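Why should sequence recovery work at all? Because a backbone constrains its sequence more than one might expect. Tight turns favour small or flexible residues, buried strands favour hydrophobic ones, and helices have their own preferences. The token representation captures these environments compactly. In the example below, the structure is given first.
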């Protein structure tokens, strides 16, 4: 920083609440910046910074920090001392690790922008950012999302487009506040059934992935916008097929028997099942037949129903018909009359 700029920082000591030094070709900030303890917003984007001065942690009132388009390879430790920080912009930095901000001291953070960094994974410690409402991770190199991410109960927007994800975590259904999920341009092949538990989700973008079918409870969601173009969605092309012999494993037969008995009020098994936590855990993984409503453990027959977007009350969608997964417990149910389900033929 030039002498003129250093003098400017000193001049502003104790007076300014907002300071912009963006696009100044700065390679470092002066130690004297720590004197600006009334500073609420600082913008130093589009410079050549790769570290922060030791005095930076003295900016106790800093609420918004813009470090985008610099040369940070890791998040400076001084940032984690800014306990009032609510908005952090770090896009376009060669970051590979963000553990420094994933701590309880950063509990006030509401918005984080990490677009176009070099991230290949997220630390499990991200669960500590319990006030986080917007997390943007677009244009990184993420191959998976840790289940701990799904403990962010206040998260409203999650942007993970243009990564290398092949799935979404099953635990995503715990993000009860999520309003917008943007995940286009990945390699996602299947949407978890728990996605339909997101009752506040209004915008879902999974365009340009490998999704073939939507979850069974799609109709229970309140989506307003759905973008799913350029996915190999199942099409309604009816072909003849050979019905295989129905043979269930002993484990499956036992599980179905237990789950039927648990529904009976006077059943001995119903009274005893709470003594067997392993059995209860298995039951939580069960599915329900769309026709007879019986529970079963493993998917025996996967079918598809073609549902109109209009019927789902989705206001904006890039297709008119959606393939919805339907699970049946047996060929007996599949061969019954009165349904509009089709068996799924895999190439």
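From this structural description, the recovered sequence reads:
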């Amino acid at each position: 920083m030039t002498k003129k700029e250093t003098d400017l920082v000193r001049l502003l000591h104790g007076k300014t609440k907002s300071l912009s030094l963006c696009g100044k070709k700065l390679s470092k900030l002066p130690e004297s910046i720590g004197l600006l303890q009334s500073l609420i917003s600082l913008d130093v984007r589009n410079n050549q910074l790769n570290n922060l001065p030791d005095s930076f942690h003295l900016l106790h009132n800093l609420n918004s920090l813009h470090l985008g388009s610099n040369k940070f390879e890791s998040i400076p430790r001084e940032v984690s001392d800014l306990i009032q920080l609510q908005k952090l912009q770090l896009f376009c930095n060669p970051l590979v690790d963000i553990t420094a901000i994933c701590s309880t001291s950063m509990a006030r953070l509401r918005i984080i922008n990490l677009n176009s960094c070099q991230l290949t994974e997220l630390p499990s410690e991200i669960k500590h950012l319990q006030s986080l409402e917007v997390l943007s991770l677009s244009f990184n190199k993420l191959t998976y999302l840790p289940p701990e991410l799904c403990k962010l109960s206040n998260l409203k927007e999650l942007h993970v487009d243009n990564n290398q994800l092949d799935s979404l975590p099953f635990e995503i259904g715990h993000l009860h506040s999520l309003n917008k999920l943007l995940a286009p341009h990945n390699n996602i092949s299947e949407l978890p059934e728990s996605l339909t538990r997101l009752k506040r989700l209004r915008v879902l973008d999974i365009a340009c992935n490998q999704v073939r079918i939507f979850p069974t409870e799609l109709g229970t969601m309140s989506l307003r916008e759905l973008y799913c173009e350029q996915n190999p969605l199942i099409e309604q092309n009816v072909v003849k097929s050979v019905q295989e012999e129905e043979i269930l494993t002993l484990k499956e037969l036992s599980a179905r028997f237990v789950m039927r008995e648990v529904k009976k009020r006077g059943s001995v098994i119903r009274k005893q099942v709470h003594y067997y936590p392993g059995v209860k855990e298995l039951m939580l993984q069960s599915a329900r037949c769309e026709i007879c409503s019986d529970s079963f453990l493993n998917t025996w027959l996967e079918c598809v129903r073609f549902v109109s977007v209009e019927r789902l009350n989705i206001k904006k969608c890039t297709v008119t018909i959606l393939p919805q997964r339907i699970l049946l417990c047996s060929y007996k149910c599949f061969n019954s009359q009165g349904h509009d389900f089709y068996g799924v033929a895999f190439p």
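A few observations help interpret the result. Residues 250-262 form the longest helix (13 residues).
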